[in-house]
Specification:
This protein has ten helices and four strands, in the order E-E-E-H-H-H-H-E-H-H-H-H-H-H. The protein is mainly alpha-helical. The strands form two sheets. The protein has a two-stranded antiparallel sheet with strand order 1-2. A two-stranded antiparallel ribbon has the order 3-4.
């Protein structure tokens, strides 16, 4: 018991900690140059499938939002579908970002033999956080977007390096895995599969427990952290450049407009 204001108070039990969704990716290894060469081409069918699944996920999330406002949790069928969709999207993203050299299966459910997997634990939600979810997710959406844009700026060079050396350097693997995991956690939060806000972009704290995969825990070295900062800066630069270009094109269009209205009063 704890002493307060000259008296004694009953101990207060701490609530269960929020569960951060987990991404498991195997240790980086040698990759086949042929699959690296055509990686983004051979994944086009999966991109189409994810696009179709995302339409259903969008409407499922809308229904789940209303249900969560009333019951403080997602209905089980919706939580199950959204969890499976998140897993499919994560397996595809890991392959797109050259973290693994195994073709993802066309399966909504987690294949037991495939080494890339996620763990989410849908549960109780805060109704206020559900109501303001679109506003609350804006900072994480900005960070996730900048990271992805920054990685894409370097995508050709990352692909070329992997093609030549047949593997990702360890710092680049760590930074890319951190990016992909943060993105997965952001999507999980936006779909109300977790109440935990996306965090630990720069890796997990050291632990004495044996690792379960290369990303559980995800230990990011100094070089990997520097790369993450580079992704953010490049993403910001790409966003600003795009905004300036759009503004310039808009001004040029306005300046080049021909006025065909009749000139009354001339």
């Amino acid at each position: 018991m704890a002493e307060v204001a000259g008296g004694w108070s009953m101990p207060v039990a701490a609530g269960p900690p929020e569960f951060l969704p987990v991404l498991d990716v195997p240790e980086p290894g040698r990759q086949r140059r042929l699959t690296v060469l055509f990686r983004w081409l051979i994944l086009i069918p999966h991109l189409i499938v994810v696009w179709v699944l995302s339409i259903a996920a969008f409407f499922a999330a809308i229904v789940g939002w209303f249900a969560a406002l009333l019951t403080a949790q997602l209905p089980a069928p919706i939580a199950r579908y959204l969890s499976n969709f998140l897993g499919y999207d994560a397996r595809l993203t890991v392959s797109l970002f050259l973290l693994i050299d195994r073709y993802p299966p066309f399966s909504l459910r987690q294949p037991p033999e495939y080494p890339v997997r996620i763990e989410v634990r849908p549960g109780q939600l805060n109704r206020a956080a559900v109501f303001f979810r679109l506003i609350l997710m804006i900072p994480a959406a900005i960070i996730s977007g900048l990271l992805g844009a920054g990685w894409l700026v370097l995508a050709f060079f990352i692909w070329l390096w992997t093609l030549i050396t047949a593997r990702l350097p360890r710092p680049l693997f760590e930074a890319t895995a951190a990016l992909v995991r943060y993105r997965m956690r952001f999507i999980a939060y936006s779909l109300m599969l977790t109440s935990a806000y996306p965090k630990r972009l720069f890796g997990d704290p050291p632990t004495d427990e044996p690792p379960q995969s290369a990303t559980r825990p995800l230990l990011v070295g100094m070089a990997g952290k520097v790369l993450l900062v580079v992704f953010l800066i490049l993403g910001l630069g790409a966003d600003l450049s795009s905004s300036v270009t759009s503004s310039s094109n808009s001004n040029n269009d306005n300046n080049g407009t021909i006025n065909t209205a009749p000139g009354y009063g001339r």
